[in-house]
Amino acid sequence: MSAGPASGCDAPPVGIDGILRERGQREVFCGLTGIIWLHRKIQDAFFLVVGSRTCAHLLQSAAGVMVFAEPRFGTAIIEEKDLAGLADANEELDRVVTRLLARRPDIRMLFLVGSCPSEVIKLDLSRAAQRLNQRFSDCHVLSYSGSGIETTFTQGEDACLAALVPDLPFTDAHQLMVVGSLPDVVEDQFLRLFADLGIERVVSLPARRSRQMPAVGPNTRYLLAQPFLAETGVALEKRGAVHLPALFPFGAEGTTAWLHAAAQAFGVAEDRFEIVTRPPRERARKALAAHRTALTGKSIFFLPDSQLEVPLARFLAGELGMRLVEVGTPYLHKGHLIDELAALPPGTLISEGQDVEKQLDRVQASRPDLTVCGLGLANPLERTGLSTKWAIELVFSPIHGYEQAGDLAELFARPLNRRDVLRV
Predict the structure, then answer these.
(1) Per-residue pLDDT for 66 more than 70?
(2) The pTM is what?
(3) What sign does the dihedral 331-358-149-376 (CA atoms) show?
(4) Domain 175-273 is found in CATH 3.40.120.10
(5) Right CATH number for 19-26+283-423 from 1.10.287.3510, 3.40.50.1980, 3.30.70.20, 3.30.70.100?
(6) Using CA of residue 292, residue 293, residue 294, residue 297, what is the dihedral sign?
(7) Which has the closest alpha carbon to 147: 135, 164, 160?
(8) Beta-carbon count within 10 A of 29 CB
């Protein structure tokens, strides 16, 4: 009797839904990393991490900001006396915030960002935010957790946006909300497309200025620009907003499906949709064709890291012909990924969570052409002769939409091209 492809002693055990769930040692950045792109997006906000010197070093090295550049993030250092209970951490936090706002009166929104150390000493930053809001009328103070305990780094943005939602104003206007931090140039491209489609009222969360945050209500329909915004989606739905399920806007097909979900919800005629989207869709397809030779037929293994893995795998398999060995993701939100999962090739192995040693064993056994992983795993894998792509680069780079489709494909083609050059 012949065994199926998932049978045998070496096959990983999967659940009844076909998804392999693993719990073990993890290799990811913490949620503080999200500050690096959030502080650029919300231009009058400041992110104050309540944490250790290690937190400060992480932010400084990740952002590459010089100390004299007046960045809009910083760290309130928790000292040994705070950890030992010899000082009142709340009084010290108030003193730091008072000094910060006196020096930087341009700050209109202040995020108190929790870390592993602040959570260990049970410092209640939500109560601190309430207390500080009573003291400072010109600056809105919010809090969220960027702790790396049982989270992955993109959840920092999710926690930040979820903290914004309860304070958004109410509206009963019919509107489309685009949810998720996008580079300004990409956001502007989408806004132009929505305007050309005739969708008149389109807002973004987060807005570029703290006092331009959108209103929300029962007639708000929202599109997620990022697949890792689970808590933000829950918070919006509590305010009455309705999610528009769709593929995420990666590549020509994903962007078209994402825009089409909005077009259907707002009654845009199909012929108008075709006229508006055909030119940028064709540009995207031509840009992708330039990288198809390098990528078609190549195998790729996604280790869980950013939560972008499932839509990126769909893009690479469907539009560039790559073979998916395994698609690992830290968390799998089926409600937001239902269309993505359906678009994956039949039999694709999807894993949720991480047991890094087992996953590395599967990488070595399959020897994929390309492995997408975190920074901490890339160099060891390269040492064994495997080509890698840093997962975090996919979060920092503009990759959404038609105009960025070719750039997205190039991010995966580049390490394979480099490998070929080095072999010569």
Answers:
(1) no
(2) 0.91
(3) negative
(4) no
(5) 3.40.50.1980
(6) positive
(7) 160
(8) 23
